């Protein structure tokens, strides 16, 4: 049961002299609860009812002459009240205002409720349902509801939430209705606050517009920066994957930027889309050129493979070895065609070269075996020559040595490592026989100039071979080796000719 109903029940059980001779006030005539802010300007539920109704008789405000009193000092503005249903973007809601109704109004002995304003007292209604303090509290709650609505509008205006024009219109309506409101409180101060909102609404709207413009400018700047970055990527970047990933990230970031007018947003998006398309065309052209280059490289390497396959069966070992080395140099100069394709082509090229070099290696083995056999044959001849004793039979020794030399020269090449050793052994035998011949002569004949020249030519050829081997040039090595063998044969022939004289 409400406080007004308790008061009405008490009045019925123990009527006072003032109410004993009049119609009793029943409990059903209690006042309603305080209205919501939206109902703050509705008719007073405790106002008089038509004759014959079951509501208590009340005195309308016009039937009384308000007592004129000096205006009271304007009370401080009450604290803002919390809104009943705040919008999601409403700022922190004000606390419920509180006021002492006795400072701003009174209830006379007849139950008429007055409010004090700067213009004097004004009757706002009648209270017959309980104690005068409860009547003041009832009308004070109406004032508090009005104050809450004013505070909420002030908070919204300060926080720049909502439509400033709508807030201005509501403040204007409140400023006009508060002075005549059926409420007890600082109506003058509350109306002044409402009028102040009307006066500041335009500046608040301007501030709100400025803030929105600044926020919009910031969002525009973000998208302009993203568009500029995309344009730079489109013009300069060659890190194709990283740049493509960054453009995708820009699209996702772009979606999060709001609050830009459609025209500007479409213009910025056109910039970004154009940059992205330009990057895509440049990347496509790059990979198309790369594919073309790889196709040319593949064709060039296939030609080298075909040429290597033609040379793989050649037995012209020196010339073909040089040609194979030239093919390898040309292969290295051709760009790659991609990991998988390049590996397959390299296997084909290398297989063709392996065929040739394997065959040459087998031929070298056979030649080495033949040279070892030749070495053994020459060593056998040298063993026989070293047994000759010119001191006992000079003529016989000379004839036997000549025959042994002919057999020695008829034998083919020997391994290069033992060639010098064998030649030195044969020369030692020749010198021993020649020394025996010279010992029988009165004077010693000088060495044949041809032999001396041949020896110098052999030494020079050996030096050329050593230089070619240190340089690693196979072609020069083959040439130097052939030249040395020729020079040695000439030297041996010259020495045989000189020994026969």
Put the structure in a nutshell.
With 501 residues, the chain is mainly alpha-helical. It has 13 helices and 3 strands, in the order ααβββααααααααααα.
Largest sheet: 3 strands, antiparallel
Residue ranges: pLDDT <50 for 5 or more in a row?
1-93
Rough shape? rod-shaped
Q: What is the helix/strand order?
A: HHEEEHHHHHHHHHHH
Radius of gyration, in angstroms, nearest whole number: 63 Å
Mean pLDDT: 75
Which structural category fits the helices and strands?
A: mainly alpha
Q: Largest sheet, order of strands side by side?
A: 1-2-3
Give the N-to-C terminal Cα separation.
Answer: 161 Å
Query: What is the count of helical runs?
Result: 13
Fraction of residues in H or I helices: 55-70%
Number of strands: 3
How large is the share of residues in beta strands? under 5%
Report on the structure:
There is one protein chain. With 501 residues, the protein is mostly helical. It is 66% helix and 3% strand. The protein has helices spanning 3-13, 17-20, 132-159, 164-177, 187-236, 240-255, 262-311, 317-333, 339-386, 394-410, 416-439, 449-471, 474-500, and strands at residues 105-107, 112-117, 120-126. It has a three-stranded antiparallel beta sheet, with helices on one face. The longest helix has 50 residues, at 187-236. The radius of gyration is 63 Å and the shape is rod-shaped. It starts with a helix and ends with a helix.
């Amino acid at each position: 049961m409400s406080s007004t109903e308790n008061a009405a029940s008490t009045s019925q059980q123990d009527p006072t002299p003032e109410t004993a001779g009049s119609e009793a006030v029943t409990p059903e005539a209690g006042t309603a609860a305080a209205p919501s802010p939206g109902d703050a300007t509705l008719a007073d539920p405790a106002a008089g009812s038509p004759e014959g109704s079951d509501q208590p008789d009340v005195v309308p405000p016009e039937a009384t002459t308000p007592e004129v009193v000096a205006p009271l000092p304007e009370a401080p503005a009450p604290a803002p009240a919390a809104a009943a249903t705040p919008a999601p973007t409403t700022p922190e809601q004000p606390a419920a205002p509180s006021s002492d109704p006795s400072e701003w109004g009174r209830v006379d002995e007849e139950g008429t409720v007055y409010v004090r304003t700067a213009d004097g007292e004004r009757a706002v209604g009648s209270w017959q349902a309980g104690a005068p303090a409860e009547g003041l509290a009832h009308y004070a709650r109406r004032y508090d509801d009005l104050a809450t609505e004013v505070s909420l509008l002030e908070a919204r205006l300060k926080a720049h939430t909502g439509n400033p024009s709508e807030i201005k219109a509501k403040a204007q309506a409140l400023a006009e209705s508060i002075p005549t409101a059926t409420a007890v409180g600082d109506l003058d101060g509350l109306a002044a606050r409402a009028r102040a909102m009307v006066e500041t609404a335009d500046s608040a709207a301007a501030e709100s517009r400025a803030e929105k413009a600044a926020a919009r400018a910031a969002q525009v700047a973000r998208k302009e920066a993203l568009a500029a970055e995309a344009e730079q990527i489109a013009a300069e970047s060659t890190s194709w994957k990283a740049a493509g990933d960054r453009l995708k990230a820009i699209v996702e970031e772009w979606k999060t930027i709001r609050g830009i007018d459609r025209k500007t947003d479409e213009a910025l998006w056109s910039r970004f889309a154009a940059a992205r398309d330009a990057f895509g065309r440049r990347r496509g052209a790059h990979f198309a050129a790369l594919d073309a280059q790889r196709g040319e490289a593949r064709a060039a390497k296939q030609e080298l493979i075909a040429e290597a396959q033609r040379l793989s069966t050649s037995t012209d070992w020196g010339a073909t070895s040089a040609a194979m080395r030239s093919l390898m140099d040309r292969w290295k100069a051709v760009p790659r065609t991609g990991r998988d394709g390049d590996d397959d082509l390299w296997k084909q090229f290398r297989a063709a070269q392996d065929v040739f070099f394997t065959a040459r290696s087998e031929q070298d083995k056979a030649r080495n075996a033949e040279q070892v056999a030749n070495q053994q044959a020459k060593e056998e001849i040298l063993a026989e020559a070293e047994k000759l004793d010119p001191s006992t039979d000079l003529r016989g020794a000379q004839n036997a040595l000549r025959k042994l030399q002919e057999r020695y020269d008829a034998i083919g090449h020997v391994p290069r490592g033992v060639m010098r050793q064998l030649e030195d052994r044969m020369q030692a035998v020749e010198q021993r026989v020649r020394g025996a011949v010279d010992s029988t002569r009165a004077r010693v004949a000088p060495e044949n100039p041809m032999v001396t020249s041949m020896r110098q030519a052999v030494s020079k050829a050996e030096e050329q071979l050593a230089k070619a081997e240190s340089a690693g040039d196979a072609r020069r090595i083959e040439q130097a080796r052939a030249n040395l063998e020729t020079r040695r044969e000439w030297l041996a022939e010259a020495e045989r000719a000189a020994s026969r004289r």
